[in-house]
Amino acid sequence: MKLRDLFLLVVANLNRMRGRVVMTMMGVVIGTAAIVILISLSSGLQASTVDNFSQFGSLNQITVFSGSRFGGDSTAEGLTPSAINDLEDIDGVVAVTPYEQFSGQSVLKYNRLEGFGSIYGIDPLVLPDMNFELSEGSATLGAGAVIIGSGVGSGFSEASDSDQGQGGGPTGGPRMMFGPGAQASDTESTTEALDLYGKTIQLELTRMSEDGQENRTVRLRVAGVLASSGGNEDYNIYMSMKDLDSLLAWSRQERPNWVQDGYSQVMVIAEQDADVTLAVTEEITNRGYFTMSTTSIVESLNSVYAIIEAVLGGVASIALLVAAIGIANTMVMSVLERTREIGLMKAIGARNRDVMAVFLAEASAIGVIGGVIGVIVGLVLAQIIGVVASAVVGTESGTTLVVTPLWLPVFAIVFSLVIGLIAGIYPAFRAVQLDPVRALRSE
Amino acid sequence: MALIEIRGLRRYYVMGDTVVRALDGVNLTIEQGEFLCLMGPSGSGKSTLLNMLGGLDKPTDGSIVVAGHRLSELDENGLALYRQHEVGFVFQSYNLIPTFTAAQNVEFPLVFTGVSPEERRHRAGNLLTELGLGDRLHHHPTEMSGGQQQRVAVARSLINQPHILLGDEPTGNLDSKTGAEILNLFVRLNRTGQTLIIVTHDPRVAEYGTRTIHMLDGRIVEDVENAQTNPDPELSPTEESLS
Ligand SMILES: Nc1ncnc2c1ncn2[C@@H]1O[C@H](COP(=O)(O)OP(=O)(O)OP(=O)(O)O)[C@@H](O)[C@H]1O
Ligand SMILES: [Mg+2]
Question: What pTM was estimated for this model as a whole?
Fold first, then answer.
């Protein structure tokens, strides 16, 4: 039996029982549409979450902490300059820089205003690899020159008290703040955001010595202002390691000995490739350090979403399995009703494989047509849900809550075809096994 | 060698404790060109014998050889191919497919043999025209009389140019006039050399056959050659009714 003849025969047969075929197809349509909608929604959610997260840091940066910072049961050596050299030798690493945070007491001052920021010392040579996006100035660090995050300028306010030495003032300790809104409610910001580019700000350091409290003011020139990333980093102030050394030396009253103590934190910059970054992260972790990278957070988010997607897809697939039972039922009924016709087909020379092909093709056709309609319905509904949902949730324009991966419609249609085919197996066997003599005699 | 050779043919149905002997030792030789009528009371095994000849049923015992095919040795696929090429069936209840037109019904057997659609349409059209249904090619069965439907069925049985045409009470559902039309058709076919084996209860049909076999309880009890082998269709009531 030729494919064309099979096709025409199937079309004629489905057309003949179209009422029932349409009803049976509805099950497939619903199941396929459900798969498309649920997976599109969860992919959309995943995309927007991962998007948000990716803003919090360059994806190829890995922050490495020495073991001692977290209780010290680490086997790794400290993050000494020679350890940094070792990290640089790892495959896929582009550059490594100390990423040392100033730990003394300090207040930022600009004219009569007070502000704050987390001060980090980094290796100026590594600057090009940090991929800093600047809104103003250039990414250069020299003596007394700093690069500040976009949030620093908006953090200034009138000094409330004169007792800046109390420790209540902002210090180098990182504050968990996301965006200027959170910060505004925290400090009574009475000033407009300052454009500090090119300006000189004062860093007022405080230390306790035998003679009591001592202050020292360091002048910092803002060589560049970073574009906003929306994360903590917006409140960072980067200076050269050399400058940080001298701040620390005054604050601690001794020069830091990195060769002996090691840095508390370094930044590893890997190649711009998620897999490489992950591999590098793993290697560093294996060496006994603690690591943190946006890529690994995104990675674990992705695997959580993969599970969510699988569960939702599974739930929707159950709808399709129910539809498969519907197809099987319709086809069994059809075999019963067309018993004489099957007998006739056999009498005029249809082979078992021909009879088999006809019924399998009919069942598959119900599956695949339902699948195509279901995909179309699902895509349309998913878009509508996306529009409604973003109106309700109020996401910024541009972010979508519905993402349909390209493989999804293809998968859904192939899946419904396979479901139809499988559903057709039992009815087709019943048709094949009919005894032609009895079939022809049946009413 | 004869067209059909049947030796010691048995077909038993086992139903619980009882064994139904639908065919109980049939020996029969049929030559090319015969118009054989199978008669006998209900349950005597006529249909069973016909289905055997058509390769629809397999013997319990014995041998049946048709045009060189030893049917008891063919598997399902082999039997299907045998039915495709060697036999044509006409049934009491036409068994046309209601959604197909007359032409589509007639060409349907060729769908399974891989003949091209053009060739199929051509042959079906010719055959239907020959049988006087040239103006009914695109009619559906429901739009035709019983006699016309049965003529479509006869055309379908002939489309593969079979060695044997098998009919199981083909006039059983027809009134005597349309029955006569079909009978006339058979006679004409037989004159062209077509072998026919027809099960019938109608003694009139037997009159026009070349040979009549009577069955009883699964055996042949009478086998008579018709003296008047070729009744003149001009004188037959069939032709009169057609004119
Ligand atoms: N599938 C079957 N199972 C059991 N017995 C059967 C089966 N088919 C036929 N028989 C029996 O075999 C015998 C012969 O049946 P068959 O159909 O050949 O009779 P027939 O001569 O064609 O009768 P009729 O003139 O009524 O059509 C009958 O007794 C019938 O009951
Ligand atoms: Mg019978």
Answer: 0.73
